[in-house]
Design a protein that fits this description.
By secondary structure, the protein is an alpha+beta fold. It contains 8 helices and 10 strands. It has 2 domains: 13-108, Gcn5-related N-acetyltransferase (GNAT) (Aminopeptidase, 3-Layer(aba) Sandwich), CATH 3.40.630.30; 126-235, SCP2 sterol-binding domain (Nonspecific Lipid-transfer Protein, Chain A, 2-Layer Sandwich). 34% of the residues lie in helices and 31% in strands. The strands form 2 sheets. The protein has a 5-stranded mixed sheet, with helices on both faces. It has a 5-stranded mixed sheet with strand order 8-7-6-9-10.
């Protein structure tokens, strides 16, 4: 009887995808409820001096506890990869730990660890790197947490990313805001060193890897927060 119920439940799952700005949400639904899901964003990755490729940056992977061990994550991932192929993405990437069960799932689909010294990295997703960097800066900077801010980030040739900082929360905004406090333009070469704390914003500006416009006070807050967490490269 239990096998029959499980088989009936599997047949009832419906695959669904919805577009929200740059993000596409893919889910398996049961009786109208999202029980397993992931999202992916359209990112542009520069290879060398000239070439640019489209990468689907994956995030928000999860399955409700009561619906696990039914192969749902695998089905959602396979369905999403099919959509990515139809949309002509050249590559996919995500951040994950090698010590979680899902890591085996990603390997089955052909994903590989790109930076073995940083075990949570598979392929570089600039959106997630930028959001993680801002979140870490906010957690370390009381003055950033004290204001509600909107930061627009340009990363090379990618579309602008709008982030809202409110308290401890840093969220990617699905549509352009009416007001932007600070616009920051970064080369992809500067993103990872800034996020890792081995480069200051002032140095990035001097090297013509960064430029900003907008509220000078906000830029100074961001600059101080980056400088405060700087550490020697030898610690990497």
């Amino acid at each position: 009887m239990k096998k029959e119920q499980a088989a009936a439940a599997r047949r009832a799952y419906k695959m669904k995808s919805e577009r929200h700005g740059r993000w596409t949400e893919v889910s398996a639904e049961l009786d109208g409820k999202d029980v397993s899901h992931l999202g992916y964003a359209d990112c542009r990755i520069r290879i060398g001096a000239e070439a640019t490729v489209r990468m689907a940056g994956i995030g928000g992977v999860g399955t409700d506890s009561e619906h696990r061990r039914r192969g749902l994550a695998r089905k959602v991932f396979a369905y999403a990869l099919g959509l990515m192929r139809e949309q002509r993405f050249s590559m996919v990437g995500l951040y994950t730990s090698r010590h979680i069960v899902a890591h085996r799932l990603y390997r089955r689909f052909g994903l590989v660890d790109l930076v073995p010294r940083r075990h949570y990295v598979k392929l570089l997703d600039p959106t997630l790197v930028a959001q993680q960097m801002l979140r870490e800066l906010v957690l370390r900077s009381e003055e950033l947490r004290s204001r509600r801010l909107t930061i627009r980030l340009h990363l090379g040739s990618t579309a602008p990313l709008d982030f809202r900082i409110e308290g401890n929360d840093v969220s990617l905004m699905p549509r352009p805001p009416r007001k932007v406090d600070l616009t920051l333009r970064l080369s992809e070469k500067a993103l990872v060193p800034l996020a890792a704390g081995v480069m200051t914003l002032e140095y990035a500006e001097q090297a013509k890897l960064a430029a900003w416009s907008g509220d000078e006070a906000v830029c100074q807050m961001l600059s101080r927060a980056i400088a405060a967490r700087r550490r020697p490269i030898s610690e990497e």
